[in-house]
Amino acid sequence: MAISLERARELVRAAAGPPLPAETVPIAEAAGRVLAGELRSTVDYPLDTNSAMDGFAVTAGPAGRTLRVIDESRAGSPATLGVDPSTAIRIATGGVLPAGAEAVVRLERASPTGDGHVTLHEAAAPGWNVRRAGEDITTGQPVLPAGTRLGGPELAVAIGAGHGELACRRRPRVALLGTGDELRDPGTSLGPGQIHDSNTVVLAALARDAGATVTGRTRVADDPAAARRALETAFAEADVVIVTGGVSVGPHDHVKPALRDLGAEETFWGVAIRPGRPTWFGRRGDTLVFGLPGNPVSAIVAFVLLVRPLLVALEGAADPGRGGRGPVRARLTDPLASHPDRTDAVRVRLRPAAAGGGGLEAEPTAPQGSHLVTSLAGADGLALVPAGLGDLAAGTPVDVERL
Q: What single string gives the DSSP state of each residue in 164-181?
């Protein structure tokens, strides 16, 4: 009997266990990775008190002063002299503030006289146009928590905090197996009964987007021995094995018997979702295994709802919703009929609510048949319509798992 989507997700998350081990990653290669531990700064940032403007470094004082320009300070080349109330030092943005200087007068508010002096047209209060050392980050300060998914802004913080390499969780390794004699390479000519293999290509893209490393995409014939060989190879190289097709009960569905022969233990088979019901999950030793439906839409739905959360958990990401992922709440634009026994995963576009009050609206895409890949075109997420609710009116709020 199929279990509920909620129960299936609980079992998958429990099976993930603790995150994968940490490894040291050069910061230039850390984009998309997940921090294994809290990151603390090794330096003050900025390291030196410096200028926020191009202008003149001076002591505090009124407008109208004419001062002698005695030196220059620019990024990477500080002035060697200091200032007093009668002198100024030309300074570039980021230049170290010279000794004795208390403020910077903007270049636009100063007039060089042509004889080595400059007249100031604005008052200079202490700290004016000055960035203090350690103003942003101080040595030892926590700057990023464990579980942070590293994008450009987070890498900027890590570099500012003095780091050149980071301890990140190892990426989950995923092996993909597509089963079926009917499968052919995308773009090739098809004979009677043949189809293009979209599943391994699409699921590989989704796995990489979720942070995984794809170790291989293998096409497996409808043959028991071939299924066992392919699975044995996948078990040896991956943390997560994903098989599409061949997990039902037909005479040519060889995946489940092969898994059983290889010692894999079933956690569940059958999830009360539409599409995606014939989904299998289990493990062999430390390797976790998914058997997803062969139907492309069903496979994608099952991946988003079950596989992606597992990959996120294995990397220890603290905020799976970062970057446009994770659930949001939205109101249906159209009436929908709830399935009596299954959660419906309705492909929808998200848009700002037309009426006042803010929020989002979820508009179903093309017809929702599980065989219709066009229902994925332009979809932003999967609206999860719980089973047994009867007819849902337009405006009903639902959870949407973003794609």
A: SEEEEEPPPEEEEEEE-T
